[in-house]
UniProtKB/TrEMBL annotation:
Entry GO terms, CC: endoplasmic reticulum; membrane
Keywords assigned by UniProt, alphabetized: Membrane, Transmembrane, Transmembrane helix
Molecular function terms from GO: hydrolase activity
Calcineurin-like phosphoesterase domain sequence ranges: 95-323
Biological source species: Pichia sorbitophila (strain ATCC MYA-4447 / BCRC 22081 / CBS 7064 / NBRC 10061 / NRRL Y-12695)
Protein name (database record): Piso0_003176 protein
Compartment(s) of residence: Membrane
Transmembrane annotation, as ranges: 48-67, 392-412, 451-474
């Protein structure tokens, strides 16, 4: 026989635990209120373990500030103009930042990969480029920023609507600074193609970024921006603009100014004798090859014609993604001349190099129409590679720290910690040895885990997202 304990008649519920209920015949009686859910709004705040959330946030703030601010400031401090220019104190040089191959990651970059993974890579890459650009513009404050092509990765393949979205995205990643000049009219093979140039893509690029074949006077130097990709085309119609530009070049530039040539694809070189120097990451010789929609160097005869026509003192190129510094020997009108060519490192984190970089150029050529003495061209410009922080170190630290944070949120709940310890202790006792491995028991016991840690983690992620947003917005 089972005896049930009777409620005492005097045991009544307090009035605030009762609620009125009207029956069908109109009588009113009071019934107990239903228990409120533990997931109500008040509980969602009270049950957060704010202490562990704040501890994790402080650790993250330190790491984020170190990788997003301290390392970048340290890198740019080594690039400060006064450290390497060597001009007189009274000099007012014109300063230029050269950016090669940003190649904005898009759906053509990693075909076959999950869209979600591509999305995260795009975000990481865009943030890396944007942050570095903003810091360069703020702390180095170049007068002019010049891009050396391959602004996009799949620009030659995009349909008009998709290309326009990528164009807007480029302008968000590389916003123009007031009272400063930005030149980005030099196309790369990823922008318009190479052996089979996409004519529509070429027209579109020129319409939005400007005509590539042009001569500009910057800091009393003549900058010759040459579309060597179209010049290399077998299609005579595509060659016309570049050929006409070269044939009339002397009509458009000041013969007294030193000349600087800008080309996306490097000029031809003999890799056995023209080595790239110690600043190149790769220990292999500079590649001289052709492939689908790319060519690593301009053909020899075209390169020779460009040098003898332009007569540059200095050449800047891109495309290779790694640094290379060589000297070209050539003749122009029977006179032996030379030109230094620097292939600028890619500024992107997704181009297969450990240390992305930009190239800095300082120009100082005081101009006098009737000078008593003239400066040698080599003495009117100085250049330096400016290395940017290693991107993957920060990513590795962030991923590791995220795993540690998740573990800390789980372990911070006393029930979860006891559950873990009990699973472990049962594993080392003699009576249970050999039955089930520790990992199996832990997975089995996970059904009893205190899921409130998910709430801690949610609040933490929301705040951390805001922190990263602020770091990338206010630079």
């Amino acid at each position: 026989m089972i005896f049930k304990k009777r409620k005492k008649e005097s045991e009544e519920l307090p009035i605030y635990d009762l609620k009125p209920q009207v029956s069908e015949n109109g009588d009113t009686k009071y019934v107990p209120k239903s228990k409120s859910s533990k997931w109500n709004t008040s509980a969602l705040i009270k049950n957060v373990y704010w202490k562990i959330v704040l501890i994790n946030l402080l650790i993250w703030l330190f790491c984020v500030n170190y990788f997003e601010r301290t390392t970048l400031r340290s890198s740019l401090a080594a690039c400060e103009w006064q450290r390497w220019e060597g001009w007189d104190k009274a000099a007012r040089p014109h300063r230029i930042a050269l950016v090669a191959d940003p190649q904005l990651v898009d759906d053509h970059t990693y075909p076959g990969r999950f869209r979600l993974l591509t999305y995260f890579i795009k975000k990481l890459s865009d943030n890396y480029l944007f942050r570095n650009h903003r810091y360069v513009q703020t702390y180095l404050d170049p007068d002019t920023t010049i891009f050396l092509g391959d602004l996009f990765d799949g620009g030659r393949q995009w349909k008009p609507d998709a290309w326009m979205e990528e164009y807007k995205r480029f302008n968000k990643v590389y916003p123009k600074k007031p009272n400063r000049r930005m030149i980005n009219d030099l196309p790369g093979n990823h922008d318009i193609g190479f052996e089979s140039i996409n004519i529509e893509a070429r027209k579109r690029f020129s319409a939005f970024f400007g005509t590539p074949n042009e001569a500009l006077e910057i800091g009393n130097h003549s900058f010759v921006i040459l579309d060597t990709i179209s010049l290399s085309s077998e299609n005579k119609q595509l060659q016309e603009d570049s050929l006409e530009f070269l044939s009339t070049l002397n009509d458009h530039i000041n013969p007294a100014f030193p000349r600087v040539l800008l080309t996306h694809v490097p000029l031809y070189r003999f890799t056995e004798s023209q080595t790239c120097g110690p600043l190149r990451e790769s220990k292999k010789p500079f590649p001289v090859m052709k492939g689908l929609q790319y060519q690593t160097v301009i053909d020899y005869e075209i390169s020779k014609n460009i040098l003898s026509t332009v007569k540059p003192t200095l050449v800047f190129s891109g495309d290779d993604h790694d640094y290379c510094d060589i000297t070209h020997k050539y003749e122009s009108d029977g006179v032996a001349m030379s030109a230094r060519e620097i292939t600028v490192k890619s500024a992107s984190m997704t181009c297969g190099i450990k240390y992305p970089a930009i190239q800095l150029l300082s120009l100082h050529n005081p101009y006098d129409p009737k000078p008593k003495t003239t400066l040698e061209p080599d003495n009117t410009l100085k250049t330096k590679m400016c290395t940017l922080p290693k991107p993957y170190v920060a990513i590795f630290v962030y991923v590791t720290l995220l795993v540690v944070s998740i573990i800390s949120f789980i372990a911070a709940r006393e029930k979860n910690l006891k559950l873990f310890m009990n699973s472990y202790e049962r594993g080392i006792l003699p009576v249970s040895s050999g039955k089930h491995p520790f990992s199996f028991r832990l997975l089995r016991d996970m059904r009893q885990i205190d899921l409130w840690f998910l709430l801690d983690f949610f609040y933490f992620i929301v705040i951390l997202y805001i922190v990263f947003g602020l770091f990338y917005t206010f630079i």
